[in-house]
Specification:
83 residues; 4 helices
């Protein structure tokens, strides 16, 4: 029997990780489909919910790390130079 090389082991690990990610994605989309099939009012709403299945809800920490930079950061620099 041939022994597995390090490249073979790392290739199998990559295949396993990829398979696990695909499986997680499948079940996440399937859960959204099962929920949306009973609650969506139109097919468009159903399709939108399935298309957004990969998104995660925002957490409170996402709001805390919000940037306070304005829309046009260069305009505020010009005001500072004029003064």
């Amino acid at each position: 029997m041939n022994k597995l090389s390090q490249n073979d082991v790392s290739a199998m690990e990559n295949q396993l990780r990829q398979g696990l990610e695909e499986d997680k994605k499948y079940w996440r989309v399937n859960d959204v489909k099962c929920d949306a099939i009973h609650t969506a009012k139109t097919y468009e709403e159903f399709a939108d919910r399935v298309a957004a299945a990969h998104l995660r809800p925002l957490e409170k920490s996402d709001y805390k790390n919000k940037m306070t930079r304005g829309w046009n950061q260069y305009a505020s620099r010009d005001k500072e130079r004029d003064e």
